[in-house]
């Protein structure tokens, strides 16, 4: 409880560790996770530190493990997580780990290289098989064609595989050469255009697409190929065609001219392909066995290597003594954990077999210690909200304790719908009840991690929203009549469906006691307000006033928390010059505003129990009274009404205004002069101490460095703080009106969605209407979850966050500290990617 209220007390300690036991001691400290080491070699280059060679070796092992992990995931194997937390290996075990990883990497690279070669050969033979099959088919068609030139000319739709050139008189048919090969399907149009332009149309291209995709041996992706045959005449065209094929990155294959030779070559290709498939399957099986064996130990190896790297990284932050037999460290340790740290150091010394006990000395320092709040799974979400604004200054009051209550409550005031809150409750309750299984499943995704880490915040927000939804009597924009309405229409007639249809509109006025019983609804709003014309006017008046009251009390509580800081840090002058005038100023003006709201609620109303001066016609406007109070004005009352709410109100308001104005110079003037006086007192004490040391011959002490006091800067800073507080009281009070505005917006959006969507389905009476109701309900449910729960919930969350960061925390929270970052192996064990050390 003390840690969540105020950060842990920290101590700067000096550790003396023997060289042979330093590794094991740091390892045990990392398992405890409660020591933050300071870098004692800030000016030394990272490549010149003592253990840089070991860090590089760890980096190399980590690289090899990541390579193994990539190959395992490529084979779609599962990396076994036994939940084991192996201890950091001894330095001498590093050689064995390096040898193991080196052997695995070399074996895997060799297997991958062989597999890639086999796949390339298989791809070439497969392409050659398709080339032979395509050319065989082409030449068979040509052999079966016996059309003459005249027949071909007279039949324009005849086969394009006929002789390209006619036979000259006294000579046989013209002999054409050909080249065949394979190229990617998407390159074929470009390839054909190139051939046409360079060869001036003197070549004939025949192509055939390979239907089945082929696997690229390098990338493993599927590619589609096309077989082509190019016919030409003459050696000159042959040279051009081959150069174009090479330039367009096609693969050319030899193809015999005779059918018998093509058949024999095809049979040989089929035999070689079968042999290659057998060898490739054996290679793949061997690779799979190697990766499956590595997957069983991969997580353990990762933990060991990362622990070693974190330890050596920490050892690089330590100093060596002159004898090189001892390592000196400076670290921050929570004072309550000194015993566990000493036990960890003793355990590390025993593991190393060293006879030299480690020494731990607590040092006196003027440095600001880090801020450390102990959290659990419930409070860590709220603590993260506060830390996002700024890390608390060392030992100042932590707002996270109060945020656990105020944050979900302010959210609920804006998100006051019990139905929507029930949806949030089901989701957050599911995450809370199944948190162990969800953590073990290690679900990824940034959005999911945000929701899961804030599951307890969502749970409280939903519970508080259900409460405010009951107060507003708002469940999916509808109200429940549980206790019976206090309003009666006509001669003791209830607002039945028939009456409502007859009246059309209903305006509620509590002045008429034949309509209102005089006894309010037991819990929350009366359900009959749901159908009243003046519903928004009534609810706006209530929610606006309650927002101001909540805001003022929230700010008053923030100022009261600052008193705890002043008392703890012994800043007693701040109590007189800051806390008291701030409290008096806020209570005199805005506390009095809340008093007038309560006084109006109690003293003015409708009915026989209120006289003419206190009935609803004479009910004053609190805002107008507050403005007149500041401007020292008096308004003429209407009719027989009193000018003020109570006797002596003008005198009371004048006194409160004068007191509030007197608080401003008290906030502005005394603190700079007191700060200057305290500075001169410290300088005088240091000078006296220095003279005493010189007189006694004890040498000179190292003076404490303190910045020179600039009175003008301090005075300007105090003036800024004063103006900020005075103006902030006004703006922050108005800022809390967002509670009313978002509550109104949420309620109206919910009502519009119901009337525009769900109401249409409920009004259908036919069989088709029943079917439509399912569709309309689905549409309404999707819009409800996406807009009213998610988007409106996010909007209310952000506004609540602003009210805490600015309006509440500005009254007492500095947030000028830095987080406690201990050496811990927790992130390594959990498999996070964060660097430790």
From TrEMBL:
Cellular component terms (Gene Ontology): plasma membrane; vacuolar proton-transporting V-type ATPase, V0 domain
Any Pfam family: V_ATPase_I
Molecular function as annotated in GO: ATPase binding; proton-transporting ATPase activity, rotational mechanism
Coiled coil: 94-128
Membrane topology: Multi-pass membrane protein
Keyword Cell membrane recorded: no
Annotated compartments: Membrane
Predominant location: membrane
Keyword annotations from UniProtKB, A to Z: Coiled coil, Hydrogen ion transport, Ion transport, Membrane, Transmembrane, Transmembrane helix, Transport
PANTHER family: V-TYPE PROTON ATPASE SUBUNIT A, VACUOLAR PROTON ATPASES
Annotated function: Essential component of the vacuolar proton pump (V-ATPase), a multimeric enzyme that catalyzes the translocation of protons across the membranes. Required for assembly and activity of the V-ATPase.
Protein name, as recorded: V-type proton ATPase subunit a
